[in-house]
User: Fold this.
Amino acid sequence: MTVSATAAVETPPVALPKTSECEQLLKIRHSMSHVLAMAVQKLFPKAQVTIGPWTETGFYYDFDNPEPFTEADLKAIQKEMGKIIGRRLPLERLVVTRAEAEQKIKAQNEPYKLEILAGLQEPITLYTLGEQWWDLCAGPHVANTSELNAKAFELESVAGAYWRGDETKPQLQRIYGTAWQTPEQLAEYKHRKAEALRRDHRRLGSDLNLFSIEDEAGAGLVFWHPRGARMRLLIEDFWREAHFAAGYELLYTPHVADISLWQTSGHLDFYRESMFGPMKVDEREYQLKPMNCPFHVLTYANTLHSYRELPIRWAELGTVYRYERPGVMHGLMRVRGFTQDDAHVFCLPEQIGDEILQVLDLTEKILSSFDFRNYEINLSTRPEKSIGDDAVWELATNGLIEALDRKGWSYKIDAGGGAFYGPKIDLKIEDAIGRMWQCSTIQLDFNLPERFDLHYVAADGSRQRPIMIHRAIFGSLERFFGIMTENYAGDFPFWLAAEQIRLLPVTDEVRPYAESVLSQLKQAGIRASIDQSGDRLGKMIRNGEQMKIPVLAVIGFKEVELNALSLRSRREGDLGSVAVDELLVAAISANRDRQAGLGLSRPAS
Assistant:
């Protein structure tokens, strides 16, 4: 964790270790995958094993079995795994020759292992589990199954998986499991998993009528419904406001361009598989844009700039299109058409540190407004295959380091993990249940200024190349909306909610008063409505709660008499009778200050 502040959302009660940072947990999960395979082959002798790695939350193994595994099978397999753990079996590493390994595999009639063996370099290692079972493996593993906790693992599901991930090869059955060091960690993991299901943005998007993905239009294309579109507009307006305040100007660029542009930029060489095919118009080939960068570069190149004009900061909410394979698309998280909150800064080499610091400040301002305050940051440095002068790389990398140090943010170095065209900073955000999401990125680029022959006129009159900074804060507006929805579990703060206040008239006789109040709210910029269902009050309240409306205002004869409303706030509880004027002042203030609630909490009586 690199940045921490008190968040408005609940913090997980138990810290779960990461496999990548805990050697013992890695060994446990890797060993559990072998225990799983041994149990399966004992109960299903015709099952052939393939691969079984650890994952960040557990482990899995792929099997070729004549019959599909059922839920009852999973229970039986888990029970058998418990027995194997209880036998306190040793896991021992053996080094064998390729010929010895091949002989052992053929004796077991395991064709998948033969294919795996063909791709291994010597020395060949395998691990035995007890005296009977073994598999090709590099480890690491625990020394004995006594180090595994039979009460801290669970099999979770079965899914289909192609051998080697190739759709032309046999389909296998993948059994997923999770394993931890203690039962308490398993319980916390299961709690978070249940929370993730409750917070699933795809379900909430449907339940709250925010967006949909329509099969008739094609996969991975998002339809924003009125409620979701209103929220998106609020996010975009806030984003624009923050960027204008930070010295950015906005661009609007086309959705397509002549394919030659993508040849010049290098995207056809490095990114072709993720691009849609070209279309022919007037004997020219046009390409849907997968990136906004070349358009901003062309805009810069349209005018010869002086060093006095730099830095130039341009931003765009630009919709791009990328081909995603059918199996990887997922709600708003992975789509084929999405909007990047893209920005590019053209600056002098000596301005890098200040510009990166300003981007970090803007990033924090925007993300914290959505209650994302815990970040994990990586600084990726020059890879082996890269372009650009050593001195420029050193200057750029030092600029990133200087900005992070001045910001006071700790970070990890990802040595050699930068892009071929420059170093970068990647920022992950932590949500309410402890998940980390890749979000913001800041990249320095020496490539596009070179490819497009960009210049500025230096103080001595010479032509020099600017440094180009790519940066995105949300990354993808669609993906961020999905992450935000899950972070809030659909219970959005007052300032962001599509419908902020719903008026609930208890009888038709008070409807004229409700209409008058609604008019006042709308004139003040408050997003409000009247429940027109005619249902009883209890049902109107339930319907409002199901739609997660921040404030429900009950109107009866007493409220009409007092020119007031009886308010129920999701965040502040029952507020009792509140004058309409007081509500207007509080709601306007909440919108202006982007508050989670109205700030009208009443002291306990």
Notes: The longest helix spans residues 23-43. The domain at 494-592 is CATH 3.40.50.800 (Rossmann fold).
